[in-house]
Specification:
single chain, 213 residues, mainly alpha
Length: 213
């Protein structure tokens, strides 16, 4: 098991470093605060672990084999992305009035609407669980690193846990980075632009997921 751990962590690093909806959502929720950013990370990684366990039991093979089930989950995922994108655009509108008209003297952003960290956790979890690609990828990814002769079920569950823990640490760096730029981000014009960009990206990803076969 230890012989496969290093290459497995290398593969996890490449996966985490690839930009995707989860990265966009984590950065966007981190704009609200460190607690929300980490809650989103934990929600996303709970989804990673769930799909890993489901793959260990072979249940994601049913999703890969059923076009109807795959398409249904794909459309649910598209709706989740679009809704999250619209939420970001609404947040951008709330900060519009705080920006100075000429843009030369950025004003401080208004205090964000108070939300529970649980809502951020649910957003991260829903985004991951509503992505059929994540399910099928877990099914094809984890078995490659099960050592020869090792019992597949416990090995895949252990690898799924390591995968989720590794990504938690990786994405925590994103949350920390956003926090370090707090003075810049707290300017209303900057926050509004970041919300607009993240919202537009999430909506675009949702539409692409809905339209792809």
């Amino acid at each position: 098991m230890y012989q496969t751990l290093l290459p497995f962590l290398g593969a996890c690093l490449l996966i985490a470093a690839s930009p995707g909806p989860s990265t966009v959502l984590i950065i966007r929720r981190s704009l609200t605060g460190h607690r929300h950013g980490m809650a989103t990370v934990l929600g996303n990684e709970t989804g990673v672990f769930v799909w890993g366990v489901v793959a260990a039991f072979g249940l994601t093979a049913l999703l890969a084999a059923s076009q109807l089930a795959y398409d249904a989950l794909r459309l649910v995922g598209a709706v989740v992305l679009v809704v999250l994108g619209l939420q970001a655009l609404r947040a951008a509108r709330r900060t519009r009035g705080a920006a100075v008209a000429d843009g030369d003297e950025p004003a401080s952003a208004p205090a964000p609407v108070r939300e529970s960290a649980w809502r951020s956790y649910r957003a991260g979890l829903a985004l991951n669980l509503a992505n059929p690609k994540a399910a099928v990828f877990a099914l094809s990814f984890l078995p490659q690193f099960v050592p020869a002769g090792a019992p597949q079920l416990p090995a895949m569950v252990a690898l799924a846990a390591v995968w989720a823990l590794f990504e938690t640490g990786y994405y925590a760096c994103y949350v920390w980075g956003v926090g370090r730029m707090r003075r810049l981000i707290d300017r209303a014009a900057v926050r509004r632009r970041l919300e607009q960009v993240s919202g537009g990206v999430l909506i675009a990803l949702g539409l692409r997921m809905a339209l792809e076969g």
